[in-house]
Design a protein that fits this description.
homodimer; 154 residues; mainly alpha; Arc Repressor Mutant, subunit A; 6 helices; DNA-binding; DNA binding (chains A, B)
DNA sequence: TTAAATTATTTACATTCTTAACAATTTTAA
DNA sequence: TTAAAATTGTTAAGAATGTAAATAATTTAA
């Protein structure tokens, strides 16, 4: 039975040639799967990014982490509040600058993060299996180029 | 002078190996540039997607367009309202189904869309220049695989 | 012909992102 | 040394986006 107006019949026109559009569709799908995998941890992709930076760079300030992730520092407040309320991260007063907070994983956070990473790697493997030999480093390299491109203001 | 805590000094750990994280960073950057290019048109990436589908598939219903773009049909209402208020798109009563609206570009919308596409292609060329021979079709193919991947629920 | 499904729509809500402002503190420059 | 400028975390407000549930009108299926 022909299903009129099913998505197979749709002409996507220029969208099918735009890297930005394809990036968006891919990103939404992989983020949804990430969220499903990590829902039992109560962790979103954004929270995972913060945790990963804190784990590898203990003692960084909120602003430094925001900059590393391309976020605004004001958005860090509620994120860190949330991670603190989950007893995963703690703010400690910075020795050198009394304005800023140094962030660390709590002992429980260290264990939590290890289990979380195991789940994230399952998710990643599911998507990496779609890529042929050599394609993963290549797509990551291309994505880095796109992420770091700063076109001149016209 | 050594700049402590500058982003070059940060260890991204697992993030540097996650396709989802890299996708996110690339997508945000390319969408921001898209938005800058199209701000004088008042068009966001989301609105451009709808316009592109309407232009190539005149007469489609709102629900069909939402499905094509992976959006919820309730989100289409305000989008179409906005495009109608800009005199770019018009809702016409469907001949076959009095519940639904068929969407078309207005005469002005046709001209508008052509100018818009010219600007979008400038934006696209800026990013495509980052890719070597053969890399654009390859990344689009990989992104399609990632976008269409439906992992089995565990 | 009745029951079930679909369409566009509205409403509400949660997220996320931006922007601007603020007090406390640090840095820079006179 | 001191005054001005910049930075930090924070709060608050607003825009954008996505999701979920409900509704009336209409169509489809039993």
């Amino acid at each position: 039975m022909a299903n009129l107006n099913s998505s197979e019949d749709i002409d996507y026109g220029i969208l099918d040639t735009l890297v930005g559009y394809k990036l968006r569709r891919a990103q939404v799908n992989i983020f949804n799967d990430f969220s499903e995998h990590c829902s039992r941890f109560g962790i979103t992709p954004g929270l995972f990014g913060v945790l990963s930076i804190v784990e590898r760079n203990p003692g960084l300030t909120q602003t430094a982490i925001a900059n590393a992730l391309g976020n605004d520092r004001s958005a860090m407040v509620s994120v860190v509040d949330r991670l603190e309320s989950m007893n995963i991260v703690e703010r400690k007063p910075s020795a050198s600058d009394r304005r800023s907070h140094a962030l660390f994983l709590t002992p429980h956070g260290e264990i939590f993060y290890k289990e979380l990473v195991a789940e994230v790697l399952k998710h990643e493997a599911s998507f990496t299996s779609l890529l042929n030999e050599g394609e993963k480093p290549l797509i990551i390299d291309m994505l880095d180029r796109i992420a770091n491109h700063k076109p001149a203001k016209q």
